[in-house]
Amino acid sequence: MALLEIRHLHVGVEDREVLRGLDLNVNAGEVHAIMGPNGSGKSTLSHVIAGKPGYEITRGQILFRGENLLRMEPNERAAKGVFLAFQYPVEIPGVTTMNFLRAALNAQRKARGQQEFSTPEFLKRVRQVAGSLNIPQDMLKRGVNVGFSGGEKKRNEILQMALVEPSLCILDEIDSGLDIDALRIVASGINALRAPERAMIIITHYRRLLDHIVPDVVHVMSKGRIMKSGGKELALELEASGYAQFEHAA
Amino acid sequence: MKQVFPKADAERAIGNVFAAARGRLPGAGPVAKIRARAFEVYERTGLPHRRMEDWKYTDLRALIGEVLPLAPRPDAEALVRAKVSAEQVSGDQAVKLVLVDGIFAPELSDLGRLENEVVVRSLREVLENSATGAMAGLVLSTTSDPAISLNAAMATDGLVITVADGNAVKCPIQIVHVATGLSVSTFTRSYLQLGKGAHAAIVETFVPAGGASGYQANDAIIVLVGDEASLSHIRVAADASDAVNISSAIIAVGARAKLDLFSMTCSGSISRYQGFITLAGEGTKLSANGVNLIRDKLHADTTIVVDHAVPHCTSREKFRAVVDDCGRSVFQGRIVVRPAARKTDATLTTRALLLSDQAEADNKPELEILADDVTCGHGATSGALDDTLVFYLRARGLSETDAQSLLIKAFLGELIEEITSENLRDFVTAQAEHWLQAGR
């Protein structure tokens, strides 16, 4: 059984069909890259998997370990192991990153029937992961993402991902707004989380990210569907020929 | 009970209440004369109504209609109930002074723990023992407002607290107002005088005892903050959900002093907190913050008037409302900068969070600037919780209710964080948490 199984998914936003019969299987241990032009429905796909309100699922299904994901609340999905790293992480003034991390981690553990972390245990884990991502301690005391640079926000997403140890990581344009150095840090944070029991879906416009995180499968998405799938070499091919051929194919 | 009384009826009713209460009000001779005069002033307008600009959003004549009869002196059974409620709201380390149904209850208070520099007497004791009438001024109304005039006429008791010059009071002094009655009114009036260079923290809380219902509380506190003194003044009103609370604070601050006000209303059918703060000495810093937490059909009004009478003072006024269901929050903030008050630096911001379609928040910021060379500003916003923030938190594992609670706490956090004492901050946080829990 695939970890994630998407069957013939149709999704509309405000009377416009954005996903039009999308199929996707992701197995544990695999890293999938989804590439495609703007408006092809990549972000919609990530939002629908995570459970963002505002989308109308007209047909199809999403199974996560065989369970119907679409019937679950976003927080239930998170507790089951689905994690979305946001393209635009939000700023939450008044909630320190530390308190936010603790609330998120403990809510998920509670939902899974696990014991909440003790404070020293929690602090130790946060410090460890934050250190490996070059996140200074004082950033953790500030409001979530408040006053963070683009790179800091993305590193904060990876920090959260590392702490909650999800089974499925969806990274929505994690490379946007990153300079070369920040990209390297973020990519190595992601690579450190690659594991046989964990799968990743990396959504990106650019091949550059895939030089750092080498995918097992590359999909080309256009007009709400996956038009072609292949190995990592497909990314190179795309860079040479562009997306246009797929748009015509659709 | 909401009924609209024609003015004549309402006036007759209150006239009877005052006539019936007169014999029980402390202070003879000059005090009684001042009371009678205050009542006359009150009678000219009667209950505040919407045609009075300061009360236009809180039309007491329409909302409460009449003033209920004065609460009887609490009996032993009422004091037992009051004790339970008073203990529940006691701040950590605070020295409690308890007023039950408008009467000081020394047996429920921590008089023994008062620090030496602090002198506390009951208003009743002061008024009854002042042979010369020199203390009669205690019931004098300096601010023209019908609720305050009525309070001066009817006050049964209160606390007269003085802190000597140069003393730093370690433990907060907490005035706990407990109501035990059914459909009665209480009138309390307290004084706090902070000497030159003194430091203190005062907390006021309003709570019902078990079984209390439909009461009306009218409180006034008159505060004098001496030169170079520093006062933190916290107020939390958590009355019965069918009760009325009208509270006034009249505060004058000396030079190079520091005053931090924080007022939070979390329950009560009709609540009005009005603060009149005069910055009367140069170089003083004021922070005046307020919060209304409102749900069901409750109505809470916070009105703050900051009067910059002299140059070189700074005031920061921040207000937040969280309104759910059919609740209505009113905030009126007025900053007056007198012609002499050059180099005034004053700002006022108000933000409302509306959690339902029927929730209402009326914000009225006003700047009245009569001086040149000042820095003044104000801002007001209101809106719902941001869905993208709620989704972000839910995607990280928080339930919808927990996500909302966390965002509401964050919304209030900025104001609560400004409370410097950790104990008082925890006390206020606990009250806000309690409000959030009650809505689940």
Number of strands of chain B: 19
Q: Tell me, what's the shape of chain B?
A: globular
Task: Let me know the average pLDDT of chain B.
Answer: 92
CATH topology of chain A: Rossmann fold
Radius of gyration of chain A: 18 Å
Overall SS class of chain A: alpha/beta
The H/E string of chain A reads EEEHEEHEEHHHEHEHEHEEHH
| Oligomerization status of the protein chains | heterodimer
Q: At the first level of CATH, what is the class of chain A?
A: Alpha Beta
**Unreliable segments of 5+ consecutive residues of chain B:** none
Number of helices of chain A: 10
Spell out the key features of this protein.
heterodimer; A: 250 residues; alpha/beta; Rossmann fold; 6-stranded mixed beta sheet; 10 helices; 12 strands; 28% strand; globular; B: alpha/beta; 2 domains; 9-stranded mixed beta sheet; 9 helices; 25% helix
Describe the structure in your own words:
The complex is a heterodimer of chains A (250) and B (440). Chain A has one domain: Rossmann fold, CATH 3.40.50. Chain A is 39% helix and 28% strand. Chain A contains ten helices and twelve strands. Chain A has helices at residues 42-50, 74-80, 97-111, 119-132, 137-141, 150-164, 180-192, 208-212, 233-241, 244-249, and strands spanning 4-13, 16-26, 31-35, 56-64, 67-68, 82-85, 92-96, 143-144, 168-172, 199-204, 217-222, 225-230. Chain A has a six-stranded mixed beta sheet, sandwiched between helices. A four-stranded antiparallel beta sheet of chain A has the order 2-1-4-5, with helices on one face. In chain A, helix 2 crosses helix 3 (97-111), helix 4 (119-132) packs across helix 6 and helix 6 (150-164) packs parallel to helix 7 (180-192). The model of chain A has no long low-confidence stretch (mean pLDDT 93). Chain B folds into two domains: 7-281, no CATH class; 386-439, no CATH class. Chain B contains nine helices and 19 strands. Chain B has a ten-stranded mixed beta sheet with strand order 2-1-5-7-9-11-13-15-17-19. Chain B has a nine-stranded mixed beta sheet with strand order 3-4-6-8-10-12-14-16-18. In chain B, helix 8 (400-417) packs antiparallel against helix 9. The radius of gyration of chain B is 21 Å and the shape is globular. The two termini of chain B are 26 Å apart. Classes of the chains: A alpha/beta (250), B alpha/beta (440). Chain A binds chain B through residues 50-53, 73-75, 77-79, 83-84, 86, 89-90, 92-95, 100, 103-105, 107-108, 111, 143, 160, 164, and chain B through 386-389, 391-400, 402-403, 406-407, 409-414.
